[in-house]
Amino acid sequence: MTVALQARDLCRDFRGFQATNHVHLDIHEGEIHAVIGPNGAGKTTLFNLLSGFLKPSSGEVHLFGERIDPLPPDAIVRRGLSRSFQISSVFPTLTVRENLLVALQAGTRLPGRFLTPLGAMDAFSARADDLLAQVGLDWARDRPAADLSHGEKRQLEIGLSLAQNPRVLLLDEPTSGMGSEGIARVIALVREVARGRTVVLVEHNMSVVAQLAHRITVLQYGQVLATGTYEEVRRDPRVIEAYLGQEAHP
Ligand SMILES: Nc1ncnc2c1ncn2[C@@H]1O[C@H](COP(=O)(O)OP(=O)(O)OP(=O)(O)O)[C@@H](O)[C@H]1O
Asked: Where does the signal sequence lie (predicted)?
């Protein structure tokens, strides 16, 4: 078993407040791993630390055995880890396909180059079409992204993350704000994109977690409360206790 992504004794404080508190995390290559926990448990902070958007106060992050926490986020993307955001990163006035083309071009080492070689543009073009099909948005290729529904924008965001062809994909609440139809689409999409790569997701919807995750890490007060399969963590008395009084019961 290869460890794709690892947090080693990871800590982050905000002016004395421990948002991430000695977290150790092993994400196995090829698994879908959900990070859950009550509101304010430190899930987003952990994602920010894993993807380089926040620097740890102490501890380390390793991607396939290489230390990445000192690197800037774009260098981490080039090493093979990419993430989607809770807040939309879609350009609303560009078409769905143009959004993907921008993401593909940004993934090269020449994002600001004035004249991209034609061969490279052809390759981007073909890859954009593949991604459109993969995220189920080929029907919307020439529509402005602003016209997409909330759920469709989340599908496009997953496509934007896939444009980097990551080995490890972090998804921050991919089903938030969606109805049951959108949720079913995202579950199918995550399963599809998880083929041949490792996926870590923050997710509040326990039914989604139960359907998707091979293993789950439960956070509380910035600490790892439990790690295991859905059945293991839902029976854990500490997890049940943590969720008492919360809307979402595991
Ligand atoms: N930049 C910051 N400055 C100060 N405190 C912060 C900052 N970012 C997060 N926190 C605090 O750290 C704690 C963990 O926040 P975080 O957003 O990581 O939790 P979460 O589990 O993602 O919550 P939710 O489920 O509500 O999205 C919270 O108490 C939050 O107020």
From this structure: none
